[in-house]
Structure formats: C-alpha cells, structure tokens
C-alpha cells in the first residue's frame, strides 16, 4: 500500500527544489505547501512571497488562502499585490512557483480551460485529489 | 508604437481617462466634502449599486472581503452588473448564486483556493449567458493602477505567449524605447466598489491592517466607493495619526458600520474564516434544488448581517474565530 498520494509526492519533490535563503513567490495550493515544507525542513530561511502581499512570513500552518492572515504571520511586510508582482516583473525574486490544472510537455500550465472548450475544464482537480 | 497583436476579449468599460475625469470632476463633488457619510448598508447598496453598473469587490476572496455587502447586493436582486473577478472566491460565489452579473473580467474567480471549486460559479459561467474576458490577477491590478493614474493604459510584461492574452482585451506592442514586446493593459474604472476595513470615521477616512491586495489602486480607480467598517472611530482618532489613513475621505461616498462584515471570510487580526460555514456552500452547491433552498435560508431569509451573525453562532462563534485568528493556545516556540 502506498503511504502517500500523487499530490503529496509532488509537494515533497517541489519542496526539495527550494534552496535555503532564496526568494520564492508562491501560488495557492501545492506550491504553498511545498514552500512551507521546505521552510520547516531544509530551508528555514526560505523567503516566501504571496501574490496578495504577504512577504517573508514564518508559515506555522498551511494557509487556506494565499491572502489569509497566515501568509503574513511574523512576516517582514504585509504589502500589496503590486509590491510582490512588481518585484517578480523586475527580476527581484529567485523563483515563482504556481500550480496548474494540467501541464503540457513544454512545461506550459493550463489553468482553467482547454483550447477548444472554454470553461469545461478537463482536469479532475480537485475532486480526485485525495482518491489514491 | 508598433502593434503586434490584439487580444480577442471584449472591453466592457471605457479606458478613456477624460470620461473618468469628467465624472470625478462633476459628479463626485459630494464625496469631496467633509460631510457625514454614515448610512445603513442596505441604503448604500440601494443608492450606489445600480442595475447595469460595473462592480468591484475589495479584499482577497475570503479575506477582508465585504461579504455582508455581497449578501445585500444579492438580497436586493441587482441585475446586469459587470463584475471584476479579480482575486475573487467566496464573493464571486455569492454573486453567482444571485446571478447578479452578466459580464465579467476574470483572472481568478471560480476556484476557492485550497477549499476546492465553486460549483455554482462554474455552472453560472458554463451556462454561456455571461460575457467573459480573461486576464491575470496582476493584469487587473495594472488596469486599476492605470485608472488611478488617469492614463488609458499601462505597459507591462504580462500574459505574453499565453492563451489568456488571446482571451483578454489587451494589446501587444513593441516598446518605442527598447523594442521589447510589452502588453498594453487598458485602464479600468469600475462604476462602484465596496471595500471592508477595520476602522473609518464618518467622513470616510479609513484604515485597515494586513495585506492591501489591490485595494489602494481600486479606491483610486472606482467612480463610487462604499466602505464597510468593523468599527466607526471618531475623526480625532484619525487625525491623531494621519499616516495610518489608507483611504482618504474624498474617495468615499458611503460609510457603513458592519461588525464582522467579512464573515464567514476572515479579517486580519480580528477573526479567522469560518471553514464550517464555507464548507456548507460547497456541500449545498452539489444539488441545484437544495442550493436554491440554501440561498433562501442564507441570504433572502436573512434580515441583515446582524441577523446573519446571530444565525451562525453569534458572539460565541465569533470569539472562537478570534482565538483561531490569534492562534491562541496553539503558540509554537521557535
């Protein structure tokens, strides 16, 4: 019996990519979980930015939303979306890290539609995310 | 400036800064006076949210979001609104349930982040009766930023090479200075917006704590602005530390005192989101018939937000959420 599901495996692998002391802007869900796992294990000084404005929090528990108060708990700044996204745009972060509904072989994520049928997402997320 | 290509999405609002200037100059005069703007939330929604208006909601979906105002907009059965689906989650879920909008600029809106996907928002958009133009969250912030600056567009490195660009109403052009590809993002001036804050005085000088999301840009871009506030404070409190004022009075049309106005969403340093309440929406959405009864019970059968809070556990529940927000009893030693 597997002791983990695919989502948990992805989170663990992604967390290992994040080096201590680097700056990463993370999106909701798995990227956020990966950043927290990294910060709690091998990268205690990982600097995490959230799109809603949280900058460099200590993640004690998993935020439900990338804008909830856990995203700026013991943080350096509770800023704005402009603060964080502008920093990304001018190259002032090391990594940005997003989840997608599906991803193609070129690494292009699909967030909410396929090419032909807008709004009829083919992805099973999130209904089957805990099924394995 | 050499145009490379145009997004095929529809532009629902005019980015013309002179039209907006005319509004701000001629029709926003009363907001510029230091007059008492306090009114009940129901009156503010009735007066300032008109059928057909383009509406924006502040906060971040379920965080410092004026949920009480969203309920009131649905309760008053507003129709044919445009909606800014920017960092939207539970707010959009409520407005979708009420079917109050028929066109949407959307970046993030159907998803509920770690909670799942809103069945009702998804079904409402899949039905095909809502006109949809797609953007990214940052592109929509840039649209508000352009509006706040009184200019018709901002160049940004956004959406280039994505399908989202194709479905947006942005334009890709080469920069006259560097020759690099830029996306020209048109200004967005919402007709009316609602923002929830911690404290405001009777004139509309307001301050909030925690992340700003895109609310500062929004307060400067919107034509009308309704503030809902956890607490009213005397003007002397504001003038004692004007550096704390994030929204000055001259942007504000109405001030509504709505304690727990973001509930069941969270309010930083005040109360955490009520996950049981939010989960009940996801559960109810699974069946259209029972969802209708759910909305009747949660919105149409509710008198106002005081009544709503009372029905959801009153002070006892709010205190539990306050403890959760402050992680009382779950302190982690370094």
Description of the molecule:
The complex is a heterodimer of chains A (132) and B (334). Helices cover 24% and strands 14% of the residues of chain A. Chain A is of the alpha/beta class and 132 residues long. In chain A, the strands form three sheets. Chain A has a three-stranded parallel sheet with strand order 2-1-5, with helices on both faces. In chain A, strands 3-4 form a two-stranded antiparallel sheet. The N and C termini of chain A lie close together (10 Å). With 334 residues, chain B is α/β, with parallel strands linked by helices. Chain B has 14 helices and twelve strands. In chain B, helix 7 crosses helix 9 (215-221). The A-B interface holds A 28-29, 32, 50-54, 60, 62-69, 71-72, 78-82, 85, 89, 111-113, 115, 118-120, 126 and B 59-64, 87, 89, 110-111, 113-117, 122, 125-126, 132, 137-138, 141, 145, 156-157, 163-164, 167, 209-217, 266, 268-269, 272-273, 275, 325, 327, 332.
Oligomer: heterodimer
If interface size is counted as residues with C-beta under 8 Å from the partner's C-beta, which chains form the largest one?
Answer: A-B, 34 and 46 residues
Largest sheet of chain A: 3 strands, parallel
Number of strands of chain A: 7
Task: Outline the low-pLDDT stretches of chain A.
Answer: 114-132
What distance lies between the first and last C-alpha atoms of chain B, to the nearest angstrom?
A: 55 Å
Specify Rg of chain B, calculated over alpha carbons: 20 Å
SSE layout:
The complex is a heterodimer of chains A (132) and B (334).
Chain A: H1 6-17, E1 23-26, H2 30-40, E2 47-50, E3 54-55, E4 77-78, H3 81-89, E5 95-97, E6 102-103, E7 109-110
Parallel strand pairs in A: 1-2, 1-5
Antiparallel strand pairs in A: 3-4, 6-7
Chain B: E1 2-6, H1 17-26, H2 29-32, H3 41-48, E2 54-57, H4 67-75, E3 81-85, H5 90-97, E4 101-106, H6 119-126, E5 131-134, H7 137-149, E6 153-156, H8 163-166, E7 171-174, E8 181-186, E9 192-200, E10 206-207, H9 215-221, E11 224-232, H10 235-240, E12 254-257, H11 275-284, H12 288-300, H13 305-311, H14 314-325
Parallel strand pairs in B: 2-3, 2-9, 3-4, 4-5, 9-11, 11-12
Antiparallel strand pairs in B: 1-7, 6-8, 7-8, 9-10
Helix pairs in contact in B: 3-4, 4-5, 7-9
């Amino acid at each position: 019996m597997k002791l983990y599901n695919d989502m948990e495996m992805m989170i663990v692998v992604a967390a290992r990519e994040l080096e201590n002391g680097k700056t990463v802007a993370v999106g909701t869900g798995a990227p956020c979980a990966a950043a927290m796992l990294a910060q709690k294990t091998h990268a205690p000084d990982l600097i995490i930015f959230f799109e809603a404005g949280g900058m460099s929090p200590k993640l004690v528990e998993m935020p439900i939303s990338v804008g909830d108060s856990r995203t700026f708990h013991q943080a350096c700044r509770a800023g704005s979306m402009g603060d964080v996204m502008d920093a990304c745009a001018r190259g002032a972060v090391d990594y940005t890290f997003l989840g997608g509904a599906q991803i193609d072989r070129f690494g292009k994520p699909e967030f909410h539609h396929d090419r032909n049928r807008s709004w009829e997402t083919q992805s099973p997320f999130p209904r089957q995310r805990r099924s394995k | 400036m050499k145009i490379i290509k145009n997004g095929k999405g529809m532009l629902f609002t005019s980015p013309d800064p002179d039209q907006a200037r005319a509004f701000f100059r001629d029709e926003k005069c009363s907001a510029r006076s230091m007059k008492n703007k306090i009114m009940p939330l129901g009156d503010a929604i009735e007066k300032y949210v008109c059928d057909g208006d383009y509406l924006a909601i502040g906060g971040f979906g379920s965080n410092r979001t004026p949920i009480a105002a969203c309920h009131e907009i649905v309760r008053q059965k507003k129709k044919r609104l445009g909606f800014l689906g920017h960092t939207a989650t539970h707010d959009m879920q409520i407005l979708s349930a009420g079917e109050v909008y028929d066109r949407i600029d959307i970046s993030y809106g159907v998803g509920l982040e770690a909670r799942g996907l809103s069945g009702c928002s998804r079904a409402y958009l899949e039905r095909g009766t809502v006109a949809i133009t797609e953007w990214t969250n940052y592109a929509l912030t840039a649209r508000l930023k352009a509006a706040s600056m009184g200019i018709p567009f901002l160049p940004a490195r956004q959406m280039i090479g994505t399908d989202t660009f194709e479905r947006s109403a942005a334009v890709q052009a080469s920069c006259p200075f560097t020759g690099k590809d830029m996306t020209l993002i048109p200004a967005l001036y919402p007709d009316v917006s609602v923002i929830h804050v911690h404290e405001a005085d009777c004139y509309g000088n307001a301050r909030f704590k925690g992340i700003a999301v895109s609310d500062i840009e929004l307060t400067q871009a919107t034509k009308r602005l309704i503030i809902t506030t956890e607490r009213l404070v005397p003007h002397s409190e504001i003038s004692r530390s004007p550096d704390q004022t994030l929204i000055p009075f001259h942007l504000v049309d109405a001030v509504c005192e709505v304690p727990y106005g973001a509930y069941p969403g969270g309010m930083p340093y005040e109360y955490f989101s009520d996950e049981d309440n939010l989960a009940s929406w996801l559960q109810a959405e699974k069946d259209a018939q029972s969802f209708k009864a759910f909305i009747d019970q949660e919105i149409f059968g509710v008198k106002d937000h005081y009544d709503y809070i009372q029905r959801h556990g009153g002070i006892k529940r709010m205190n539990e959420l306050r403890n959760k927000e402050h992680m009382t009893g779950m302190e982690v030693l370094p």
